[in-house]
Amino acid sequence: SAVISQKPSRDICQRGTSLTIQCQVDSQVTMMFWYRQQPGQSLTLIATANQGSEATYESGFVIDKFPISRPNLTFSTLTVSNMSPEDSSIYLCSVEVVNEQFFGPGTRLTVL
Amino acid sequence: GQQVMQIPQYQHVQEGEDFTTYCNSSTTLSNIQWYKQRPGGHPVFLIQLVKSGEVKKQKRLTFQFGEAKKNSSLHITATQTTDVGTYFCAGRSNDYKLSFGAGTTVTVRA
Question: Among A42, A46, A56, which would you mutate to test the B interface (most chain B Cβ atoms within 10 Å of its Cβ)?
Answer without folding.
Answer: A42
